[in-house]
Amino acid sequence: MDAKFFASKTLSLNGLGLLWILGMGLSAAALGFDTVFGHPFTLGGSITMPFLTAALASGLLGFWAVPLLRVLKTGQFIRTEGPQGHLKKAGTPTMGGVFFLPVAVAIALVASGFSMDVLAVSALTLSYGAIGWLDDWQVIQQRSNRGITPRAKLALQIALAVLFCLWVFSQEPLAITTVALPLGLSLPLGALFWPLAGFVLVAESNATNLTDGLDGLMGGTGAIAFFGLAVILAPTHADLMVFCAAMAGACLGFLLHNHNPARVFMGDTGSLALGAALGAVGLLSGNLFALLVITLLFFAETLSVIIQVAYFKATKGPDGVGKRFFKMAPLHHHFELSGWSETQVVAVAYAVTAALAGFALVLR
What we know:
Blueprint: H1 3-9, H2 15-37, H3 48-71, H4 97-111, H5 116-142, H6 150-171, E1 178-180, E2 186-188, H7 193-211, H8 217-233, H9 238-258, H10 267-285, H11 288-294, H12 296-314, H13 331-337, H14 342-363
Antiparallel strand pairs: 1-2
């Protein structure tokens, strides 16, 4: 089917409309779930209260933080080889992760009674956010799209992943190496779990980083992904459920300022941290399969970049120029250049992520 035809049939919404639908949908789902299975008006025993508290706190804090980021001249540099329609976004404040991540972490810690698992996941989340902040700061200082070197960024990500895995092993050396599968099945991985664990943390972090390329895209899909994990974890890991609910709410509050047209971007500060948080929760809860299903959209974004680079190299001629498999990678830019508007791409991404979260819940 022609992409332009499909895009024209997609529900036409502006960014605020998408935010409204997403916010109402997640709030209703949280309240409905807690009414049936939990206690909707307790901070530490529900999805609803940490979700709504983080959403409100993050949204309100943004009214102070976004102007401050503008005063601090944290304007985003837009690469000229990207979609030309994005050039008008140059100068929009970035590093938005500095205000919504601490909100989520603080609420999760308080609501969980400073659970050790939540402390560990929060520390990893903020540490990956610090890597992203360093990268964003270098971009701002150099006024280019070059932050810290990819090798340095990867080395820092791997080092933190190793430290986290060592902590996990010291707490639960046997139980944590078993991965839950559908139909009540499980897969004991033994020593193979540890390279897989490191890969998951680094891969999820970079996948969410690549997905963060359109106004509201990563914020909204991140909110849905964390919410889906919260529902899945509710029966077995109440503390991590609260963490995911708070992260989902903080992402939603951030969207108040990040929906199209965005007043602020989360930057690597936010996007690297979100992937690390998702990966860490999946590891600690033994729900790597569910995590894979919920984050398949992020995987597709990463795969599109790998395919694009590999195809370009494989078709490179004597002039050093190769062919492109996609019009542009990551995948969301391909749909943009195929005639979709930003909000149409984002709306479909929300729908796909919600469907994947629902599918993961059915398979639980």
